[in-house]
Automatic annotation (TrEMBL):
Transmembrane segments: none annotated. It comes from Pusillibacter faecalis. This is 2-dehydropantoate 2-reductase. Residues 3-152 form the Ketopantoate reductase N-terminal domain. The lineage of its organism: Bacteria, Bacillati, Bacillota, Clostridia, Eubacteriales. One of its GO terms (molecular function) is NADP binding. Catalyzes the NADPH-dependent reduction of ketopantoate into pantoic acid.
Amino acid sequence: MKIGLLGCGAMGSLYGGYLSKVHEVYVCDVWKEHIEAIRANGIRLDEPEGETAVFTPKYATTDPSEIGPVDLLIVFVKYMLLEDALKNAKTMIGKDTIVLSLQNGIGNYDEIAKVVPEEQICCGTTAHGCTFLEPGHVRHTGRGITNVGTLKGPYANAEKVADALRQAGFEAAAHENVMQLIWHKLFANIAINAITALLDQTNATVAENPYEHTLAENMVREAVAVANATGCHFDVEAELKNAFDVAIATGTNRSSMLQDVTRQRETEIKIINGAVVKTGKEAGIPTPYNEVICQLIQAKQSFYLKK
């Protein structure tokens, strides 16, 4: 299968590397130094067990027009850049190309659908962890399942994607109700990301500090109520337990939102806690805790973004 990676940071490098073992993989990223390192030395991946693997994609470039249409395009671009990135990569998207989003949050699908017909879109979740070390070099911090599904496209597309991932050694599954899985993962992000970004703390503090714990619990309770109003079926106590278990299991990690704030980048608050607020308003469910945390994060980033 001819597979393209649009956005080849930590997760893009992980998926691009593994997939290149059995597929024809083309990676595209705007960071010239990273692409040059991949061309020179391949994708170097430090595995959780300690060894370093090296993978060689078919081609690495900053120019998507050099690649042409692919069978599967996996997108790892932040949602605020997603529409423009896909418009720039239109030459990679043919009438039969499947476009897969595995990014966190709720809202990426809508950005992709501005450019790609919905019947060609797959979405899902990944439980893998990965950290960027230097151009061409990433650390694989944890393994997990990749879940894939469709909202309006044929379910066969999700099965095709899951099969391609399994061929490369990923644990992968296709699901009929992919939004249930996306919300489930989102609850942990809702509990952890914004609080740690505001307080400059690692993930474990959300479970261990009583004030953080209470705030996180209130935000997750709102999110579960909103998700259930959209047709999902979640037990709030089970989701709270999972969210705090994730905080402990990733206890020494600095959340992606904290990393964004530290590097003075725009955060993805709009598709994490902001997705709860937006969907809550549509469903007539108040979400005051998530609304306030969104305002605080947006205020914090407004100082360095100057907007």
